[in-house]
Specification:
The protein has 402 residues and is mainly beta. The chain has six helices and 20 strands. Strand 12 (226-228) and strand 13 (231-233) form a beta hairpin. The two termini are 46 Å apart. It comes from Vanilla planifolia.
Length: 402
Amino acid sequence: MLAVWIGSQADEAFPEAWHSDAACISKEHVVNLRSKVYVSPKLWYVRANVIEAQDLQPCDKTRFPEVYAKVVVGNQALRTKTSQNKSINHMWNEDLMFVVAEPFEEQVVISVHDKVGPNKDEVIGMVSISLQKVERRMDSKALNSKWYILEKNLDGDDCWKKKKRNEANCSGRIRIRICLDGGYHVLDESTNYSSDFKPTGKQLWQPSIGVLELGILGAQGLLPTKTKDGRGTTNAYCVAKYGQKWVRTRTVVDNLSPKWNEQYTWEVYEPCTVVTIGVFDNCQLQSGEKSISARDNIIGKVRIRLSTLESDRVYIHWYPLLVLNNSGVKKMGEIKLAIRFTCLSLLSMLHIYLRPLLPRMHYLYPLSIGQLDMLRHQAMQIVSARLGRAEPPLKGCGGIHA
């Protein structure tokens, strides 16, 4: 029985086509061999401005509470400073920043805590806000704050359980200004090697200035990452990332000099950006649970800055695959790439160099270095988790981000 397919990479059937180099792989693992295009989730900054709380009802009414507010979004948690006001009303006026991705899966949970001892905090009240109901802001305009009722933590300390059942479930109120800030670019890469600087809000995007074409031709001299029949081998594939678009080539099985010959394109909005290409060893081809939880090993990666490329010129070179380990930088082989950047308008290109690199909000309300590092780490974790849940999962995004 024989099935013959003739076509090019542009055909829809290309990712599903069988190749002779995958004939030794079982049918259940073929999906982990094929090439595929992925798109990063749309990332937003969430700004929660915790202003004040009033009419708090602490558990211990014989003392004035030492209160702070805590905001939790998914696995991200931040808190304000402890208020020293000697009353039941407290003021903070602090901005807390978080990263979320569409479609929104998290709730914004705000809780007010009382420090009753050196290592003991009690929850006075809490409120949960759906991100679907949060206002989206694309500029620096002021937003109206809102009052939210704090509900008691009925499943918490014993003092709440002793309350009468007919008592109102209210322990005060908190004033918060919360929004999804779409005027920023959510950094999920190192600023020096970023592939994108567009703001989250699509209505703020400038027109594209060109097209990037990348041909992933092949590799040679790859160092073996596993043994098969007493000899070293590897199952190599490439992941290329630029902007929100990720591409994964097919896996060439049991070959230290694989040939891919695949071509991909991206729209370019900023020339001072970097395209990253990584070579990985596919560890998803074994049967059992080990294959599902296995992490693909990075062999090496290459970064190419678009501003160093002459427009409309094709560059075909062998690039060294470098990886940083405990003993220093090590060469793991070479990859052959063909790359071309085509500028659509020279005038638009010159105009780009007259504008700041980041969107306007980064300069009107700049984030601190500490905030940027923390938010970048959270953004990387979110992107890796979302792409890891794709079908088939993309398990090489962590090595590209590093």
